[in-house]
Amino acid sequence: MVESPIGLLRIVASDRGITGIYMENHAHPPSPEAMGARLPSVKEDPHLARCASELTEYFAGSRQSFEVELDASGTEFQKRVWEQLTSIPFGQSRTYGQLALALGDGKLTRAVGTANGRNPISIIVPCHRVIGADGSLTGYAGGLAAKLFLLRLEGLEPAAEATLF
Questions:
Q1: If both were cysteines, with which of 51, 78, 92, 142 could 74 make a disulfide (CB 3.0 to 4.6 Å apart)?
Q2: Residue 51 annotated among the catalytic residues of the structure
Q3: What is the structure's pLDDT at 41?
Q4: Catalytic member of 55, 127, 130, 146
Q5: What pTM was computed for the model?
């Protein structure tokens, strides 16, 4: 577990790279078996150590891109969506529709949203940079407060939510 401004982050790795970054209240956590053995320290694994270091730099404002090796598991379509997410630059956002068009079919908006929500490597594969067509915040596996924090950390201010009063 790594401390961060959005709470504790559980980083999971294989021998090939990072397989997941999960927040405490993550909507789609992996099964306990998929988590593997808990190590006493991130220093015990080179992928975990590098990831923790890069996340610390990101939250301190000194890192805008990540270099740690990734090893996400998912369907071919999910992997295509996650690849699109990694192409969204720091400080920018995209809509689900824009991602669907980048994948070659504007009708894939819902499927893109589902794949985005199943992204196992939060923050590094920046699903938080995807917003609604009207500029509003939409779902985030770690909660909307975390999404808002990450967007603001990157200098983005989402559209104000409509209120009754």
A1: 78
A2: no
A3: 67
A4: 127
A5: 0.87
